[in-house]
Specification:
300 residues; alpha/beta; Transcription Regulator spoIIAA; 2 domains; 5-stranded mixed sheet; globular; binds iron/sulfur cluster
Length: 300
């Protein structure tokens, strides 16, 4: 299958931008579409591209100008990007004529409110972690059958029933042994920056979900409330794949949710002599409960 994964453009609707007109934020911090790179990592045997509209604003126009559409277009979206993705899905369907490519939407908004995408121009919604289930969907479509009963995949039926089945996420959903396709965004690498912290940045996921379940937060919906860690060796592998990029951003919501794994990871970084700046999120109560772990990470 010919697959294009699309990262939607900066929507310009963050609080600093809307409330205070601070548009420079999008220049200070622009990260790579790691979620799409991870999906692509499990799509071996298929032809995959990533179009990052945050780094390449005319990427969609270029794609449409190719004339022949891909078989599948996959979007990711956080909540403030949901309406943009619906609009872009319409452009994809109309732009390629006929039925157009199969359009699939996943990401945070799809996981928190999947019914929002039960609309014309979208064919499937991926709820929660998608690295494994999107692959299953693609394989089913490649075999020319309507995939049924893939946990976390919902067929869109505008006006009809749309009831995602509850499912249990496990470490199998991380497909830990297959790394992200960092190479698919290599041409944009210089544009992925955290200017205030250290310039060029590479993203690495160490875990998904959270140990807590705050009612206002989108994170628990990605894993059904579970906290799932990547293996230490997979994390080290991914840091290594980013080459000489000096700054690594752990994009997990809670990097220290499993203190034992966090300790092992810091020890391994020190043992291997990896010298990078690392940015990660930590809960205040973790800092208070385990200051020795924080001291270890300060060394790492
Ligand atoms: S990531 Fe933070 S806000 Fe979200 S559930 Fe975990 S502790 Fe709560």
């Amino acid at each position: 299958m010919n697959i294009v994964l699309i990262n939607p453009p900066n929507c310009g609707r963050s609080i600093p931008e809307e409330e205070f007109g601070i548009t420079s934020l999008k220049m200070i911090f622009r990260g790579e579409p790691l979620a799409l790179e991870m999906l692509a990592g499990n799509l071996h045997g298929h032809e995959v591209r990533i179009v990052d509209l945050k780094a390449e604003p005319d990427g969609l126009a270029k794609l449409l100008a190719e004339g022949t559409g891909p078989d599948i277009v996959g979007f990711t979206a956080v909540t403030c990007e949901a309406n943009t993705v619906i609009r872009l899905a319409g452009q994809i369907k109309q732009g390629f004529g006929g039925k157009g490519p199969i359009v699939v939407v996943g990401g945070h908004h799809a996981s928190c409110d999947p019914g929002y995408f039960n609309r014309e121009d979208i064919d499937y919604v991926v709820v929660g972690l998608g690295k494994l289930t999107f692959r299953m969907l693609v394989d089913g479509l490649a075999q020319g059958r309507e995939p049924a009963d893939i946990p976390g995949i919902v067929r869109v039926r505008p006006g009809g029933p749309f009831i995602p089945a509850a499912r249990k996420y496990t470490t199998a959903d991380l497909v830990d042994h297959l790394p992200p396709r960092y190479d698919l965004v290599e041409t944009h690498r210089d544009k992925y920056v955290m200017s205030g912290v250290g310039g060029k940045v590479g993203f690495v996921a160490t875990a998904f979900g959270c140990t807590h379940c705050c009612s206002f937060c989108s994170i628990p919906a990605m894993t059904g409330g579970r906290y799932l860690s990547h293996s230490v060796e997979a994390i080290i592998r991914d840091i290594g794949m980013l080459g000489d990029i000096p700054l690594i951003r752990f994009v997990d919501a809670n990097t220290f949710g499993d203190p034992a794994t966090a300790r092992l990871l810091a020890e391994r970084i020190l043992e291997l002599g990896i010298r990078k700046k690392i940015v990660a999120d930590v809960r205040a109560d973790t800092v208070v409960a385990d200051p020795a772990l924080m001291r270890l990470w300060q060394q790492a």
